[in-house]
């Protein structure tokens, strides 16, 4: 009976802790990514600059002022003289964020992340994949609350998610 009672207490404790944890969904666009600045296209010199990156992430508030969570980034480009030769970039990263200043209107923070970039190259009837180290370093980020559920944000840094990111956060 004691085992069942302890198991029930443990399950209730885990459920209560999970409910108390705040979660947010982020959606953003980033311009000039790591894939453009570094050789993430298998040594090709005649590659166009990508259009940017679409980023989606989920963050969990694990401690006061500290958030952590996974993210997915998508970008693509082509060769300059052969638009049939395409590159698709998929970045999967684990990000951490620290809020270092907060008032009733704005929150300032820094963010970092590490992970992997999977580059998928296609041409004619062939394709190949390459893997690269992905990172994101944002020493300056600002978030402004629009409502209790939605916030706008902007981040300045460098990495797979972009040099300058703008987007929205949704509190779940």
From TrEMBL:
Keyword flag Amino-acid biosynthesis: no
Coiled-coil intervals: none
Origin superkingdom: Bacteria
InterPro entries in the record: Beta-barrel_OMP, OMP/PagP_B-barrel
Signal peptide (residue range): 1-20
Domain Outer membrane protein beta-barrel: 7-151
Keyword Signal listed: yes
Keywords for this protein: Signal
Name of the featured protein: Outer membrane protein beta-barrel domain-containing protein
């Amino acid at each position: 009976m004691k085992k069942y009672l302890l198991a029930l207490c443990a399950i209730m404790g885990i459920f209560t802790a999970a409910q108390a944890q705040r979660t947010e969904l982020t959606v953003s666009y980033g311009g000039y990514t790591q894939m453009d600045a570094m050789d993430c296209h298998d040594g090709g010199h005649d590659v166009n600059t990508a259009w940017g990156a679409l980023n989606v992430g989920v963050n969990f508030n694990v401690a006061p002022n500290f958030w952590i969570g996974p993210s997915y980034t998508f970008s693509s480009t082509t060769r300059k003289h052969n638009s049939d030769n395409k590159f698709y970039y998929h970045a999967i990263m684990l990000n951490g964020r620290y809020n270092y200043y907060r008032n009733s209107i704005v929150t300032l923070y820094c963010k970092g992340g590490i992970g992997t970039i999977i580059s998928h190259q296609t041409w004619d009837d062939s394709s190949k994949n390459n893997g690269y180290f992905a990172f994101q370093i944002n020493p300056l980020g600002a978030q402004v609350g629009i409502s209790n559920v939605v916030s706008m944000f902007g981040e300045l840094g460098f990495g797979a998610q972009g040099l300058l990111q703008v987007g929205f956060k949704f509190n779940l």
